[in-house]
Specification:
By secondary structure, the protein is of the alpha+beta class. The chain has two domains: 2-107, no CATH class; 115-256, YojJ-like (1, CATH 3.40.1700.10. Helices cover 52% and strands 15% of the residues. It has helices spanning 2-13, 19-40, 44-63, 67-87, 89-99, 102-109, 117-132, 148-152, 163-169, 208-219, 268-281; strands at 115-116, 137-141, 155-160, 180-184, 187-193, 223-227, 234-238, 241-245, 258-259. The strands form two sheets. Strands 3-5-4-2-6-7-8 form a seven-stranded mixed β-sheet, sandwiched between helices. Strands 1-9 form a two-stranded parallel ribbon. Residues 102-113 and 260-282 have low confidence and may be disordered. The chain crosses the membrane at residues 17-39, 51-73. It holds the Pfam family CdaA_N. Probably a homodimer.
């Protein structure tokens, strides 16, 4: 009985729980998840590891009462906060730009980034032909993150994605062959675009096109196809990594999933509810 009374006393010490509290917890959980996901997909992940080491070292100093070290940490804490803001400035700016992008909003409206059935076939056919003729190419496929800033650096095209169009764009000595092509919303939106170059160490067998493809994959979730002008080899850059393709058909593994004809596009919320209905029926 005494144990029950103690437990009742502990419960009474807990703050009151309301519907607004549940909403706040859900919002905070979603924000923490989004922030952690953002950190993981950017260079900030490596910097975060360093910050965690510093925090652990501070806890160690406090626990063992290393007064001199604790005093130094306290004096440097203000400068450290400013330094963190400066270090994370590119990532923070990128996150704020993506917050209002049309692609972020479209995820909640149910407009997914899957491509029409014919587009992947056209991309594979174009890369295969350009590989045979050793025609250099750089094709950037937009995903959830907007590439409007990249599109602005090139020449507006707004054409249907076909193998013939892509081959003609990258044909040597043509006005649009130099630079990258951007594909957005199933359209060739822009050509001769400039891409950020990666600072990562890559094989000397790769050229400037590959470094540019790797650079855009580090700064966005875009998928970039590269055809080497020297060797005719096809490569894919995605999520900060470069993959060599042996056969053009292997591109299907890296290209966005195709949308089946007549398939209804569902929002995130409708997918969740449909899963719940299936569970109830089973």
């Amino acid at each position: 009985m005494s144990a029950f009374i103690k437990m009742k006393g502990w419960i009474s010490l807990l703050p009151s729980f309301s519907f607004t509290g549940v909403i706040e917890i859900a919002i905070l959980a979603a924000l923490i998840y989004i922030i952690l996901l953002w950190i993981k997909n950017t260079k900030a992940w490596q910097l975060l590891k360093g910050i965690l080491i510093i925090i652990l070292f501070t806890a160690f100093a406090v626990f063992f009462r290393l007064t001199t070290i604790v005093w130094l940490i306290e004096r440097l804490s203000t400068a450290a906060i400013i330094a963190i803001v400066v270090i994370f400035q590119p990532e923070l700016r990128k996150a704020l730009e993506q917050l209002g992008s049309r692609n972020l909003i479209s995820q909640f409206r149910g407009l997914d980034t899957r491509q029409n059935t014919h587009i992947n076939e056209e991309l594979i056919a174009a890369c295969s032909t350009m590989s045979e003729h050793k025609t250099g190419a750089l094709i950037v496929i937009e995903q959830t993150q907007s590439l409007e800033e990249i599109e602005k650096t090139g020449i507006y095209v707004d054409g249907i994605v076909t193998a013939a169009l892509l081959i003609n764009i990258f044909e040597k000595n043509t006005p649009l062959h130099d630079g990258a092509v951007v594909i957005s919303h199933d359209r060739v939106t822009s050509a001769t675009c400039y891409l950020p170059l990666s600072d990562a160490e890559i094989s000397k067998a790769y050229g400037t096109r590959h470094r540019a493809a790797l650079g855009i994959s580090e700064n966005s979730d875009a998928i970039t196809l590269v055809v080497s002008e020297e060797t005719g080899r096809i490569s894919v850059a995605s999520e900060g990594k470069l993959y060599r393709i042996r056969e053009p058909e292997e591109l299907l593994k890296y290209l966005p999933k195709e949308e089946k004809e007549g398939e209804e596009r569902k929002s995130i919320f409708s997918r969740i509810f449909s899963k719940e209905k299936k569970k109830e029926q089973s």
